[in-house]
Amino acid sequence: MINHFEIKNFKCHEDNNHFPLPGITIVSGTNNSGKSSLLQSIFLTTQAKGRTYPILAANDELRIGSFSDILNKNQPNSATIEFSFNFDNKLLAPYGVDEFNVNLSYKNPSVFEKLPIPFFESNPFLSSIEIVLKKEKEEHELYSLEILDEKTNSILYKIDSKYDNGYCKVEGIVPEPIIYSDVEENERVICSSHLDIIRSILKLVSTENIKYMKAFRVDNFVDSPNNKVSEIGLSGQNTAEVIHKYRETIADFKFEGSDEILTFSKVFNYWIEKLLGANYKIRSNSIDKDKFKVTIYETKTNIEYSLNQVGFGISQILPLITLLLTSKKNDLILIENPEVHLHPKLQSLFVDLCIFVLENDRKLVIETHSEHIINRLRFKIKENPEILSEINILFFEKDEEGFVKYSDIELTKEGRLASWPKNFFDQTYNDLLGLIDQ
Questions:
Q1: Which of 58-62, 66-70, 101-105, 415-419 has the lowest mean pLDDT?
Q2: Confidence of residue 289 (pLDDT cuts 50, 70, 90)
Q3: Structural domain contains residue 43
Q4: Is 126 part of a structural domain of the chain?
Q5: Which ranges of 360-397 would DSSP assign to H, the alpha helix?
Q6: 63 and 191 within one domain
């Protein structure tokens, strides 16, 4: 999946900010310092793909506002918002590609007044795509696609590359197979193996491969299916239905040292027992033909409880467990504040689940304010130093002038912090010193 991500002019991120994304990236820091913006920007790259027109607009749950709302406040309205990323080598290898870098530039739609698209409103518009591709034993090839705002009957991008020059239609961020050598004459197809590869790789940037879970999650889990393939919503919607639907499906997971083929139910129940205790089972019941409901079954007493009869924390961690365990290899999972309403022990055990997901070839980016999550991660590194290279902790803050800055927190194989930045979880230490002094 995505190996490295850059942001420019998105919300409080002004300069090119570069973020490595190994197996687990922890995003921590002070309030209003750009943590959520990193997760949102990664997810937003998926939102342009499936649209007829390449605009930057998320669904109703992830409201980002208009172009002026998300453009960095120090930039003029004519500036571009840019996202850049590249991919892991293991994903590129099947295509015979050594390197694949993408830069997406979004502009204010007001600069495209001649485009007759009534529903643009104020959504940022994908104005250019730049792709650098390097195949085995070949030189780097640059594909630059830039919108032609003078075209009034369709959205066309001019392609400039060594092998193909002409025009193409772009749906979302995936170029169509047809390149027009001259839009005013008969259409002529120019075949390009490179463009086939580009389309295939860019299709990996989708909501099928990049998942998102917001900080505040629904708590009742009475779900009504809509006759579509069910996915967990950004706030945990459809959790009951997904648990019910996946219960007998083969899980894309293996336990360490075992080649046993696992069902979702077996993996799910294993982690429910680890996180909630051996006395509890989760059930997803069909309460009529259109609705599903999650209940908690206590094995000692043979009593079944609804979620509003147990602690609120269970309803908050269930969507996270379900999202993680229905993921696929090479998925990228973005999670805001998993610690919300969770007991410290449960926060720590959640890290164990994340390590299990990492070991089964997923990536996670987790925004958190939890010392328990970070300390448990440090302990897991000490327990297994081999995962150190897969862990990255980013600390965000703003300087005195209001500019975002971040630090990579270096960890040792013993789980220690090589350096401890100011304001990085030092309040507990300061409070304890105050108690001692008194």
A1: 58-62
A2: confident
A3: no
A4: yes
A5: 371-383
A6: yes
The pLDDT score that the predictor gives to residue 67 is 81
Q: What is the pLDDT of residue 138?
A: 74
Burial annotation 122-140 (CB, 10 A radius, 16+ → b, else e): ebbbbbbbbbebebeeeee
Going by C-alpha positions, the residue among 211, 204, 205, 195 that lies closest to residue 144 is: 195
Packing angle, helices 344-359 and 264-276, rounded to 10: 150
**What are 89's two structure tokens?**
């080598």
Residue range 152-195, pLDDT digits in tens: 344 555 666 665 566 565 555 555 554 544 444 433 333 456 77
- Cα 175 from Cα 159, distance rounded (Å): 10
- CA 228 vs CA 53, 160, 224, 241: distances in Å: 23, 40, 11, 11
d(CA 169, CA 49): 13
pLDDT of residue 192: 54
Answer whether 361's CB lies under 8 Å from 330's CB: yes
Domain assignment of residue 120, given as a range: 50-202
Residue 33: is its pLDDT beyond 50? Answer: yes
pLDDT of the residue at 116: 43
CA nearest to 425, candidates 412, 437, 407, 413: 407
Considering the domain architecture, whether residues 251 and 346 belong to the same structural domain is answered as no
Contact 102, 80 (CB under 8 A): no
Closest-CA residue to 207 (of 176, 234, 180, 169): 234
Q: Which of 273, 292, 327 is at the close of a domain?
A: 327
| 316 shares a domain with 283 | yes
- CA pair distance 125, 50, nearest whole angstrom: 14
Taken in order 308, 310, 314, 316, is the CA torsion positive or negative? positive
Mark whether 80 and 195 lie in a shared domain. Answer: yes
Quickly count: other Cβ atoms within 10 Å of residue 200's Cβ. 13
For residues 337 and 413, state if they share a domain.
Answer: yes
Residues whose CB is less than 8 angstroms from the CB of residue 37 and which lie 6 or more positions away in sequence, other chains included: 7, 10, 11, 12, 13
DSSP string, 161-203: -SS-EEEEEEETTEEEEEEES-TTS-------HHHHHHHHHHT
Mean per-residue pLDDT, 275-281 = 89
Please, which residues have CB within 8 angstroms of residue 110's CB and are 6 or more apart in sequence?
Answer: 77
Residue 140 has a pLDDT of 75
pLDDT tens sequence across 327-362: 999 999 999 999 998 999 999 999 999 999 999 999
